[in-house]
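The pair is quoted verbatim below.
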Amino acid sequence: MTYTRFKATASALLTGDNVLPQDSDSLLGLLEMAFNDLVTHADSLHLMTLNRDNELNRIAAGDYVMRTPELPRNDIDELDVDNELCFPLARFVASYVSDKKGTVHFGEARRLINDYNAKVYEILESVKIQEDGTNDV
């Protein structure tokens, strides 16, 4: 998802509520907070790495670590996360800005992340089984 599309999605979630800041630095600050929340809770396949030279956020499955996503430099940049995680990311940003539905947006972000993580665990389990023929993770 491009940064432009992300901003449109977050704005739509806030219809009838507060609006996103128009100041690009403020919005990037909110996105950075949302990236932090996202990486804290989601096991993003796009952000899992064995390379410990990256800016790291936390330990992930197995020997993997979660790297910190890079902020977009312009509106046409793709967000540095799995596409499926752009929607909870928009929910996190909406939760920070919302006057009326902050808790709803945050809860929905967490639900979407839990659904995503379940898929990731299935993928990792499947890969592990194919590699060594066991069910050990």
Q: What stands out?
A: Residues 3-42+73-130 form one domain.
